[in-house]
Amino acid sequence: QFFCELLFKFRGALASDNELDQLSLTALFNIIWSISFHTEYIEELKSNSKFLITVKSLANDDGEDWVDQYVPKNMASIPKAANGILWNLDENNPARAARTVTVPSESKPLEKDINMPDRMR
């Protein structure tokens, strides 16, 4: 909730000349992208419609009106982070479905392999 509120505060940073605000917005998107990998926060993020609208608008914005933005090497750009957030929140994401459906398998004793030497059995 805290990071979402900060995101709303800095939403207009890309249209301004304030490089510190732009960097703050970039960092916020990267932080929220990291948070979106944690399954315990997915529903909270998905239930915040204002947050989703903000992320979708920046993910789909072609950036023609934006001021050239410096992005540090260790951070993703805002559109890339926004698209990453949307990907992580998408229930139809095959990777997400595979992570949440994984069931530990039961271990079975190995059958004797005729090619396996006795010392390895």
Q: What are the key terms here?
A:
single chain, mainly alpha, 121 residues
How would you explain this protein's 3D organization?
The protein is an all-alpha fold and 121 residues long. The chain has one domain. It is 55% helix and 0% strand. The protein contains 6 helices and no strands. Helix 4 packs across helix 5. The longest helix has 17 residues. The radius of gyration is 22 Å and the shape is globular. It starts with a helix and ends in a 20-residue tail after the last helix.
Let me know the largest β-sheet. none
Count of alpha/pi helices: 6
Helix content: 40-55%
Summed up, the domain count is 1
Which regions have little confidence, pLDDT < 50, spanning 5+ residues? none
Share in β-strands: under 5%
Distance separating the two termini:
55 Å
Choose one word for the global shape: globular
Give the mean pLDDT: 75
Question: Radius of gyration, rounded?
Answer: 22 Å
- N-to-C SSE series? HHHHHH
By helix and strand content, what is the structural category? mainly alpha
> How many individual β-strands?
0
